[in-house]
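Work Package 4 report. The design task specified in the project plan requires that, given a folded chain encoded as structure tokens, an amino acid be chosen for each position. We show below one input record used in the internal validation round.
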């Protein structure tokens, strides 16, 4: 019987070293995938130019984005400018430009591209605002935005690079939690009286 280095005892399809970074692999390397995903990381990110930048397939653009974020964070922290007021000014300029473009399109009788519609549930917005308020009370919003940018541009790339290992260890953790949950669930069910269990089954 062959010895496997896989702590999860999962059958691995293909060699890990033969993985192509430029083309997303559709074959699953293990039976367990993080977050139960069925597609590759590149496809989950949209599969376009933005996904290439986030996954460091366009290294110059990714490095440039990190440098711009670092310089902007340093300037905001050192200059004393309010990050929120600068964001409001930028959004106001973008709204004015959008308004001028819409008027220009009407004069030229051209059709504007529709903006993508973002639908969020009320609970999600409330939870996000509450988390931002809690974290914002600890650190500045500029630092929070900078940390979020760095995490957003590094974690997906690291996961894409070490996808097989992360999924393997996540599978081990998932199996252990499942075993413990099953033990706890059986112990709780065993304490329920039989007449209540029969009523529950009915």
């Amino acid at each position: 019987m062959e010895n496997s280095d896989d702590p999860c005892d999962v059958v691995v399809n293909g060699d890990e070293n033969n993985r192509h970074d430029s083309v997303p692999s559709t074959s699953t390397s293990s039976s367990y995938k993080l977050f139960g995903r069925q597609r590759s990381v590149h496809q989950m990110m949209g599969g376009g130019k933005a996904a290439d930048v986030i996954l460091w397939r366009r290294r110059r653009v990714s490095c440039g984005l990190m440098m711009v974020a670092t310089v902007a964070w340093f300037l905001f922290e050192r200059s004393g400018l309010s990050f929120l007021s600068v964001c409001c000014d930028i959004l106001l300029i973008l709204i004015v430009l959008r308004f001028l473009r819409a008027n220009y399109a009407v004069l030229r009788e051209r059709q504007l591209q529709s903006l993508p519609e973002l639908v969020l549930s009320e609970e999600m917005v409330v939870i996000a605002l509450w988390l931002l308020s809690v974290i914002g009370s600890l650190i500045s919003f500029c630092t929070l935005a900078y940390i979020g940018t760095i995490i957003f541009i590094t974690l997906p790339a690291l996961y894409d690079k070490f996808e097989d290992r992360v999924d393997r260890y996540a599978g081990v953790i998932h199996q252990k939690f499942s075993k413990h949950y099953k033990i706890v669930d059986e112990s709780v069910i065993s304490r329920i009286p039989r007449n209540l269990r029969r009523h529950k089954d009915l």
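The radius of gyration is 25 Å. Validation will be extended to a larger panel in the next phase.
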